[in-house]
Amino acid sequence: MNKEDNKDIIIGQNITFSYKDRIILDNQSFSFKKGEHIGIIGESGSGKSTFLKLLAGLLTPSSGTLEVDSESDPAKIMKKISMVMQDAMIMPLTIRENIALGKEIKKERMDEIIKATRLDLWTDSLPEGIDTYLGERADELSGGQAQRIAIARAIAKDADIILLDEPTSSLDKDTIKDVMEALETLTDEKSVIHVTHQTDLLKGYHRILKIGGGRIYE
Amino acid sequence: MNKEVIKMLKVCGVWKMFLIMLILRSPFDILNSVIKANLMQCFIHMIRQNQKENLWFNVVLFFALSALLFGYNMSIWSTIAVKTTVLLQTKLRKKIYEKILDLSPREMSEESKGDWFTALNNDVDNACAYLTSPLNYMHMVIALVNLVLSSIIMIFLNVELYVIGICCLLPFFFLNVMVISRKITFFKERAKKTLVKYTDWIEVSLKEKSLLSVYDAKEFVYEKIEKQSLNILKENMKAHNRMCICNALYAFSGMLGYLLLLFRGSDIIEEDKTDLAGLTKMTQYRSETVRSVNCIYSSVNNMNASIVGVRRINEIIGGENNG
Amino acid sequence: MLKLTKSRGDDLKVFKRLIKKNAILAVLTIILTFLSIISQFVWTIYVGKIIDSIAQREGLSVRLLLTMGVILLISVAFIYSSNLISRFTAEKMAHTLRMDFIKNLLSSDGASDEKGAFEAMSKVQNELSQSSEYLSNTLFDIFSMALSGILALFFLLFENAFLTLIILIPMIIVCIAGRFLGQKINPLVNASMNKKIVFNKTAYSLITGFDVVNVFDAKEFFKNRFEKELNEWAEVETKKERVSAVCNSLSGILSQTPLLVLFAAGAILIWKGMLSLGGLIIFLNMTGTLLITLMNLPSWAVSMKSFLIHLSRCDV
Predict the structure, then answer these.
(1) CA–CA min distance C172, chain A (Å)
(2) What does each C-alpha distance from B67 to A32, B29, B75, B81, C242 come to in angstroms?
(3) pLDDT in tens, A68-98
(4) pLDDT of the residue at C4
(5) Which residue from C20, C159, C139, C142 is spatially nearest to C91, judged by alpha carbons?
(6) In DSSP terms, which residues pair with A82 in a beta bridge?
């Protein structure tokens, strides 16, 4: 890595954070470098997902400072990150709209994203392609298709920091493999923080941290 | 009008429109009463006086008057009323939606998502129902105008008969409202709670079916459930009994009032102060006052249920003004 | 999907069983309802006699007043008792339904797994609850109103068949017109509901996907989308309300015709000596009942059918 890559992209200093009467972090400091792939594990209910929301700017710490890519304002932090959650959040929109969420994306770029996430195998079979309305069909989507759309959404945003909140936990083994391949496209050369209880998915990650009892540690 | 409702209408900028709609629609019932009462009088008079030549003229006249009245109502309804209600609903939903958008992710995560969805739908529907649905505020006002003006007309026609009519109406009405029907809701709530217990026992018997077989406890559970079911019956019957008394009193006051009006009316006709046509007119107005009183009562009950939606909306959208 | 005749047979089976188990109460209800209606007819007949006496300036005696007073009290007593017994019968039938349901549940092998238990609970909260509700609050009211209308028709035919048949014509026209106008409104009601579902879906997506919307900076997108869908709904809703206004007003105008026809035909018959003024008043008081029955018969039939279907699904 060069000097730029060694830079800390997320810095949390003396962070204390509680949520719904639970202490998630108690005066903890941490930092993640640019381009690092970090895995976060912990017991059920330890606050892994809540920690991720903190990093995303969706929640604010009770005390301490959090900087994400030199930004501390939550609204600006959100612009720096992409997120893929366990629930893909497929909305009653077309496939294109679910990916773009109102942003202008050029045709070539959209085609690239569809291909990278292997959604083309499905969309090519639809009469209206990526302009197919998913409203009533959302329930018919497989878990894999839904997560691919969520990943496509994250790729479209092209943020440097990717937060993954158990994106494969509700999928079967074969689908996990497909979705992980799509995720590789997303996370290549990005800073990744991946919350999961499936530790085998964290092979090749630079660090694995554990969260629990108000602490975050290796 | 309730302060909360006025506040909500002002915030949405439809207050003036609503007032105009209210003023324009309020005479409908009284005009209908006047037409019907005069129709009765006219036809009875025509029949008694053998005025065969006036028959078809009167039929056409009263049909035309009714058509004009309904036409007037239709024109108000299809223009101002529709515009006001749709605009109110649209604005309320937009404002609530904007409030949701303004929330921070933390605020959203700490609040019940269901409550926001309820606000966008049930509360808006309740608030609009308060104002314009059948037997709510609008109908209450229309019925009130009908009641007041019908009463004034009856007083002008014959004070004595009016007093007889009122004496046979109001005491029974207040007896119903203040004594008898007050506890109906209470008994219905108790029946609902007992129903919950019944459902709980059903759940137990479903989940522990095997255990009940092993311990030969099916009969025991059946008896428990029977007890709950009988309690539901008892509580419902308490509510039903009161409703039956209300209905009987309502019928009694209606029939008694009509009877006394006829008997006293007969004496007044003998004194040549009125004729049968005039008496029939009075009975028609009387039935309109009875109908209006019941309409007001039902409307007030419904409004009490709907006002909850208005309060919740005002809590959400606050006091910001919208021109 | 079962054929109508077959399903009706199944649906009635449960209902017949409930009636059979509460036979005495059901018979008592029918008798008291009948007597209540008859007592009100007697009242109306005497009102007619009073009107005739007033018209002929015969004066009204104290005896007549007392007679009317007795009829009034008997009538009110019958109204109260028939209402009470019919409600009690309905509640007893609801109780029988609940107990038959649980008896069946405890004795059967079904509902022992999680799926079966879920289905049984769903039945309790839906079919059983709706059937009980219908029994408690609607069944005997409809029965009473329908019986009232039918007896009124026979009574009026007995009083003056010609006049009855004359006024039936505009009544039937009003009913047909009402159904026709209702059919104009129904598609618009559905269209409005569908548009409402669309904007509600967007709102639901925003609320449930709030984090995603924030992370991907899609608030403006969701705001514009919601406004667009809301405006589309407003357009359809406005059209629906306008059509409702026209149809209901037309229906209102038409509903005046039976009364006017009654007056016109009644006047002619009175002048020909074939009817008295009191008789006309009797017709005036009864036609309201008849018109209500005629107009509501289709909707009562629909609600009854729905009730019987729910009943048949209660697995009793």
Answers:
(1) 43
(2) 79, 14, 12, 19, 18
(3) 998 888 888 888 889 888 888 888 788 998 8
(4) 36
(5) C139
(6) A162
Q: What is the pLDDT of residue C9?
A: 57
A162: left (phi over 0), alpha (psi -120 to 50) or beta: beta
Contact A58 B109 (CB under 8 A): yes
Q: Is A156:A122 a contact under the CB 8 Å cutoff?
A: no
User: Tokens 């007969």 identify what position?
Assistant: B266
C208 touches chain B (CB under 8 A): yes
- Shortest Cα distance from C234 to chain B (angstroms)? 6
Residues 116-135 of C with CB under 8 A from B: 117, 120-121, 124-125, 129
- By residue range, what is the domain housing residue A195? 8-217
Candidates C81, C121, C82, C86; CA nearest to C101 is: C121
- Chain A hits for B104, CB-CB cut-off 8 Å, are 74
pLDDT tens, C219-273? 999 999 999 999 999 999 999 999 989 988 898 899 899 999 999 999 999 999 9
State the average pLDDT over residues A126-136: 85
Give the span between the Cα atoms of A42 and A29, in whole angstroms.
18
d(CA B175, CA B168): 12
- Of B1-10, B203-212, C91-100, which gets the smallest average pLDDT? B203-212
Q: Tokens for B202, please give them.
A: 């059903």
Segment C128-142 shows an average pLDDT of 86
User: For residue B122, with 0-12 CB atoms within 10 Å meaning exposed, 13-18 middle and 19 or more buried, which class applies?
Assistant: middle
Residue A2 lies in a domain: no
Instruction: Give the tokens for residue B175.
Output: 């007896």
A118 pLDDT band, cuts 50/70/90, is confident
Amino acid identity for residue C21 in this structure: K
In chain B the domains, ranked by start, together with CATH numbers, are: 3-317 (1.20.1560.10)
| pLDDT recorded at residue A203 | 85
Average pLDDT, chain C: 88
Establish if C216 touches chain A: CB-CB under 8 angstroms: yes
β-pairing verdict for A8-19 and A22-33: antiparallel
Q: Which of A89, A91, A137 to mutate to test the interface with C (most CBs of C within 10 A)?
A: A91
- Report the chain B residue with the minimal C-alpha distance to residue A21: B110
Q: What are phi and psi of B221, to 5 degrees?
A: -65, -40
Confirm if C85 and C10 have CB atoms less than 8 A apart: no
Torsions phi, psi of C307, nearest 5?
A: -60, -45
Structural domain contains residue A1: no
> Which of A144, A117, B101, A149 lies closest to C213, judged by CA?
B101
Number of domains chain A contains: 1
Residue A116 lies in a domain: yes
Rounded to whole angstroms, what are the CA distances from B123 to B120, B129, B307, C229, C232?
6, 10, 9, 19, 21
Identify the CATH number of the domain in which residue A55 sits.
3.40.50.300
